Amino acid sequence: MDSVLSWFSGSAARDGDDDDDDDDSIASSTMSDDDDGREDGSLDTTRESLGDAEDATSPRASTSDVDDAESKALLPPRKILHPYSRVRDAMNAGSDTNAGLPSGLTNGGNTCFAASALQCLRRATALTAWFDDIDRWHNSARCEEKRKFCVVCEYAKHLERATASGGAHSIGRLTKDINKVAKQFRRGRQEDSHEYINALLDAMHVAFLKDLGGEKKYDLRTQETTVIYHTFGGYTLGTVKCMSCGYVSKNFQSTLDIPLEVTGKIASIEAALEMNYCTEETLSGSNMYKCSKCKTLVRAKKGSKIHVSPNVLTIPLKRYSTGRFSKITKYVHFPERFSLAPYMSDDAPYEGSDPVYDLFGVLVHQDFYASAHSGHYVAYVKLPDDTWVLCNDGRVSVSSEKEAMKQKAYILFYERVTPRDGPDVRPAGYLEDAVRAARSERTTSAPAMSVDTSDIRSRLESMKFSSARGVDDVISYRSEAPVATSTTTAPMETKTETTTSSMKPSFEIETVTAADGSNELKVIVTLPGCTSVKEFDVELEAQASGANVLVICATSLYVAPIKIQLPRNIVDEPRGSTFKRKLGKYTVRFPLVGAA
Ligand SMILES: [Zn+2]
Ligand SMILES: [Zn+2]
Fold first, then answer.
1. Could you give the CA distance from residue 93 to residue 91 in angstroms, rounded to a whole number?
2. How far is the CA of 219 from the centre of ligand 1 (A)?
3. Quick one: CA dihedral 522, 523, 529, 532, positive or negative?
4. How confident is the model over 16-54, as pLDDT tens digits?
5. Residue 377 has pLDDT above 70, yes or no
6. What is the mean pLDDT of residues 49-63?
7. Which pLDDT score is estimated for 317?
8. Residue 25: exposed, middle, or buried by beta-carbon count in 10 A (0-12, 13-18, 19+)?
9. Which residues contact 321 (CB under 8 A, 6 or more apart)?
């Protein structure tokens, strides 16, 4: 996963409400590396709109239409891209290949992070079985990308070698050309296993979409129906319940893993899940919530549930939450079999059977001196005959479940004992009905707003999914934020029902010479209606491409996070930032490397 650099959060930042000074200087030195996995750049699908080719000229669905549609239930996909039945069948059949010890993966120089990841991924039956007849989905013989680098062709080759070879073999281009898996990686450098898994799955997902005409052809929910999402994908549901009127605002988020905090007294995976998915936070005081029904600041309860359980559940333990230079080294207990049921939402749509999971992989980062920078990765994996083996680069040796369960795991891999039901295709008229129902519920005093549904369906194809929560929860996948080269002003959509201003946020970017003669980039974001730094969060997202995107989330003011693509040559720690309350202007300055 990419790093998300959070240099202040709205609630933590000093607010200037009680002094008369017009400027709020915001400290920019407290930067934490938020090891949030899927909730940031590399793997994430952008919440940006995705127009259907045939509807390329149609107007875009407003973010509030999509919000409305998803205010009751997860919007089903319009199409299913990869047949779900194959994933279900593969899981039901189990793995019949790979008898005996798996082949080792020789270390080609700091490649243990990849070897361990690949050994675990190979045990994800549904994905491995998908590659049995990969030519049905991806024509390797005619693959034009193959010579340059094609992640699907390379993964196919890797699996072939793994099956054919009795001993150890090299990982090949999946590490030799690692910068083509994702640009942030460097060959020969010790990378992070979790980040590598995210990047690899994302690259395959994107390649599969490309085979189907490109991601732009499909709405986001349809995109989330490749084999990668069928296998690893799930959804979380974030809710905020108004304590005055009881209105519940919902936000569905797709995810390819469930990262868990293991800070403090958390001693087990169940405790971590309990904390994440069974407790509610009360938003009150300076942290009040703007209810879209009451249209005023209210006390509210914020919570999160798992809404769709993944078939393969990947749980990264956030051992690096205090930054990359230290690590939480304690043992965290994890079960061999457990159920996600206590953490699921009441109206989870596709479960079919109990979400019971069996452990099949334990990826371990053996650290030296509690450093996240050095160390060695190994993986304990369970073979189809229930033998546990230890994969340590080229060496594979028989181990035991007991041994695996003793490890200070970094990433856990579980498979659902029975596959869940597949997604349903969205019925005709679904969006129109959902929008109508949501709007009539939301407006009690006034009659239901008249909804122009004539073009909603076509606009749906280019919809923008938005986050109703903080930036931590924003999935941004290949952001298509406007690229600013010199000075750009771009209008953004506002949350029409709750915004305090009819104006739209906008930004400008300029290069200035600082007092010391060095160049810096100044980003000035105008946030209409915003009166306090507490009303927004700012983060810098490192994209898989290596570019940085400035993300500003003002969830009580605007539906969508504001995303601003920054030039590559910035130093990602800002020099400083200010907020001018009267003007609603937030300014942040980044040092520039080399010429502007
Ligand atoms: Zn290919
Ligand atoms: Zn309310």
1. 5
2. 24
3. negative
4. 333 333 343 333 333 333 333 333 333 333 333 333 333
5. yes
6. 38
7. 94
8. middle
9. 32, 34, 35, 261, 263, 328
Provide the residue ranges of all domains of the chain, joining segments of one domain with +: 1-47+473-596, 84-238+244-416
pLDDT of residue 548: 79
Ligand approaching nearest to the C-alpha of 145: 1
Whole-number mean pLDDT of the chain?
A: 76
Report the distance separating Cα 95 and Cα 89, nearest Å: 11
- Taking the CA of 137 as reference, the closest ligand is 1
The span from the CA of 336 to the CA of 90, in Å, is 22
The model's pTM is: 0.66
Neighbours of ion ligand 1 (CB under 5 A): 143, 146, 150, 152-153
Classify the C-alpha dihedral 205-208-210-216 as positive or negative.
negative
Q: Which CATH superfamily is domain 84-238+244-416 in?
A: Cysteine proteinases (3.90.70.10)
Joined together, the tokens standing for residue 291 give: 């209810």
Ligand nearest to the CA of residue 140, numbered in listed order: 1
Judged by average pLDDT, the poorest of 271-285, 329-343, 353-367, 511-525 is 511-525
Query: In angstroms, rounded to a whole number, what is the distance separating the alpha carbons of residues 401 and 184?
Result: 35
How close is the Cα of 141 to the center of ligand 1, in Å? 8
One DSSP character per residue, 223-287 reads HTTSHHHHHH-EEEEEEEEETTT--EEEEEEEES---EE--TT--BHHHHHHHHHS--EEE-GGG
Whether 589 has a pLDDT exceeding 80, the answer reads yes
Which amino acid belongs to residue 39? E
Distance 215 CA to ligand 1 centre (A): 17
Residues 6+ apart with CB under 8 A from 18: none
**Whole-number Å distance between alpha carbons of 170 and 379:** 17
**pLDDT tens-digit readout, 419-468:** 999 998 988 888 888 888 877 777 654 333 333 434 443 333 333 322 22
CB 396 within 8 A of CB 103: yes
**Amino acid found at 413:** F
Residue type, 34: D
Please report which confidence band the pLDDT of residue 275 belongs to, taking 50, 70 and 90 as the band edges. Answer: very high
Q: Rounded CA gap, 27 and 576, in Å?
A: 7
Tokens 């570019």 belong to 547
Residue 230: active-site member: no
Q: Which two tokens stand for residue 189?
A: 């450098």
Q: Is 112 labeled as catalytic in the residue annotation?
A: yes
